[in-house]
Amino acid sequence: MKYSILILALSFLCCSPAFAQAKYEREFRIRKSQFPQNALEQIEDQIKDARRLRFYKEIDSATISFEAKFKKDRLHYSVEFNSEGELEDIEVQIKEVDIPTDVFSSVSDYFKGNCKNFKIRRLQQQYPITEKQKMGKVIKDAFQNLILPYINYEMVVFCKTDAGREEYEYLFNSEGAFISRRKSLPPNFDHILY
After folding, report:
1. 126 or 47: which carries more pLDDT confidence?
2. Any bridge partners for residue 71, and if so which?
3. Is 52 left (phi over 0), alpha (psi -120 to 50) or beta?
4. At 178, is the pLDDT very low, low, confident or very high (cuts 50, 70, 90)?
5. pLDDT score of 126 more than 70
6. Which helix (H) or strand (E) holds 28?
7. Closest Cα partner for 159 from 190, 119, 131, 121?
């Protein structure tokens, strides 16, 4: 009897689907002096003629990272570093027309199958740092805005389901295959006093 309860509990834990992790992420603007110096040195050539240069500290539920956001050549860039100042990824804000048609159709098919209704709020092309891709090559590829096999597409999407309307952050690979989904929290409004 006690083994059947144990087996039932274990099967419930193993078989219960983990649909989405919550995105416990807050972003705070910081001064340039608070940004890691070695991170600044990695992108100094790219930010020389950049406009709207801003620095952020991003606190996740598990990690702390730093982000430099700026506009260059009419594109919005976001360059993310870990707490040691090592480059994690570069994101370029794009529009739906910038994605290849077959990739966008497979992404749309995914949303049509998982949401009653959906609206893409933000779309970014992500150039992640991997073991195969060296940092210098990724920086060069990102600032040339190349569509390559190792990039990802990050989307913030309002998805309407039976449970209601939720905001999620989705990640798809360069062919439009689903990678991950995280539930987004609403922005922090602690600065507003009532």
Report:
1. 126
2. 51, 76
3. left
4. very high
5. yes
6. strand 26-30
7. 119
User: Closest by alpha carbon to 142, among 154, 155, 129, 158?
Assistant: 129
The total number of residues shown for the chain amounts to: 194
Q: pTM for the complete prediction?
A: 0.79
DSSP at 8:
H
- Domains, in order of start, for the chain: 21-184 (3.10.450.360)
CB 71 within 8 A of CB 52: yes
Q: 74: phi > 0 → left, psi -120 to 50 → alpha, else beta; which?
A: left
* DSSP code for 192: -
Q: Could you read off the pLDDT of 16-51 as tens digits, one per residue?
A: 334 445 556 778 899 999 999 998 888 888 888 889
What region does 40 belong to: left with phi over 0, alpha with psi -120 to 50, or beta? alpha
Contact criterion met (CB below 8 Å) for 174 and 103: yes
What does the alpha-carbon distance between residue 111 and residue 12 come to, in Å, rounded to a whole number?
Answer: 28
Lowest mean pLDDT across 6-15, 121-130, 152-161: 6-15
- 119: alpha, beta or left? (left if phi > 0; alpha if psi -120 to 50): beta
194 or 167, greater pLDDT? 167
